[in-house]
């Protein structure tokens, strides 16, 4: 409840325009689900408001709830790096994994997302996963389609051909939020 209260306070402070107030509904719905399985939310933004929201959530979760610091993905992040991070998260009292820039993953590292986010064969105890992507493009269609298109473009040339982007993104991510 403390996390949800802090999140609502953050959302009201950044003054989202009416059509973007869906953010409050999406985040509230996400937080009210039982974390018996991984609950994954992607926050995609090309604006400073999205960056501010992500920073506020990350800070609140780390300081107030003792969650682990966020994991910033780089081009050198390996599948094992992600497994180690998710293992540490699954051992915490408040299980929140916060990832930045998954669009920078290379080789077979996206497969770690597939394994840890699978709701049918959960590796660790259920946890929340917040993925932040600071994109360079505004969204135009549906949020989910735009996020998948953006990540697919970035991953296309940099991951193994047997890694299916759709299997990782469409079937494993519960909510998409574009700001």
Please give a handful of descriptors for the protein shown:
179 residues; alpha/beta; Rossmann fold; five-stranded parallel sheet; 7 helices; 5 strands; transmembrane
Describe this structure in words.
The protein is of the alpha/beta class. The protein has one domain (2-178): Rossmann fold, CATH 3.40.50. 45% of the residues lie in helices and 14% in strands. It has a five-stranded parallel beta sheet with strand order 2-3-4-1-5. Helix 5 links the parallel strand 3 (96-100) and strand 4 (128-134).
Identify the CATH architecture.
3-Layer(aba) Sandwich
Provide the spatial order of strands within the biggest beta sheet. 2-3-4-1-5
Taken as a percent bin, the fraction of beta residues is 5-15%
* Class by SSE composition: alpha/beta
Main location: membrane
Subcellular location: Membrane
Keywords: Membrane, Transmembrane, Transmembrane helix
Topology:
Elements: H1 2-13, H2 22-32, E1 39-45, H3 48-65, E2 71-72, H4 79-90, E3 96-100, H5 110-117, E4 128-134, H6 143-156, H7 165-169, E5 175-178
Parallel strand pairs: 1-4, 1-5, 2-3, 3-4
